[in-house]
UniProtKB/TrEMBL annotation:
Pfam families on file: Radical_SAM
Species assigned in the record: Methanocorpusculum parvum
Associated pathway: Cofactor biosynthesis; Fe-Mo cofactor biosynthesis
CDD domains: Radical_SAM
Name listed for the protein in its UniProt record: FeMo cofactor biosynthesis protein NifB
GO MF term set: 4 iron, 4 sulfur cluster binding; lyase activity; metal ion binding
Keywords linked to the UniProt accession: 4Fe-4S, Iron, Iron-sulfur, Lyase, Metal-binding, Nitrogen fixation, S-adenosyl-L-methionine
Family: Belongs to the radical SAM superfamily. NifB family.
Limits of the Radical SAM core domain: 37-281
Swiss-Prot/TrEMBL cofactor(s): [4Fe-4S] cluster
Amino acid sequence: METRETDKDLRDAQNLPYDPETLRRINEHPCYSPEARHTFGRCHVAVAPKCNIQCNYCVRDYDCVNESRPGVTSEILLPGDALERIDEVVSRMKHIKVVGIAGPGDPLANEETFETLRLVHEKYPDVILCISTNGLLLPEKIDILEKYGVRNITVTLNAIDAAIGEKIYSFVEYGGKKYHGREAAEILLKQQLKGIEEAVKRKMLVKINTVYIPGVNDGHIPEIAKKVGAMGVFNFNIIPLIPQYKFKDVVPPTNADKARMHELCAPYVRQMRHCQRCRADAVGLLGKDVQNEFGCCGKGDGSGTGCSGE
């Protein structure tokens, strides 16, 4: 059933009235097309260590080679070093079509993200630039994302009810202040929805990531799908919880649970069913990462070694 459904999702996407460039950004991006994952790869560059929220399921790890999950990287790169890494990757792997910044913190909370985007956009204007964010700063940063050619954006949206959101986030830092509880969840949600709305209005392809947390937001996920589908997002990705930090004792959903949740959400928005929960430094095809084949960062922009801990 899964193959049939994902094939249908791809056909639906190809039949939508998109311009050729937008179709390319669908059909060559492994997260936006279930078929592209077999043919086209991505290069994530970990230039964004800082985060402006604390999710109760998130642990960021550096110098880590043994885990494959969001928030993990083997090193932190400076912008110039990231460009050198991309140079090396694309010279050796012609199927790399996407350059993404997905952490290990929130890309929009790190100025290094925007310098990296500028460098990559100038040198590789045809590459698909992609950002994954919690959305807190998306309304403020969307102009500069558009300027540097970012047209594919992923927003992690775990709740559209602040009463549920406050169970998921320990704090939110915004406007120079730290917020907790319901107030933090309300600020984050307002910014997320505003940013998603603006991105869709600018004809960016928006993917929503929702972490499936049993006993917390599981009964709420179809409502999230309904909301974002009505807003015009492109697809919806359900990520099973990896138990850690404050949710370390939560039993994660099974594959069957995830499949059932996709079916509940499918009437509202196109589903992404093939997520591999990528590292912040992932390179290659989905599920076939080869980031360990690429050595430590090079000289880069001359502002330092670029590696964490050096």
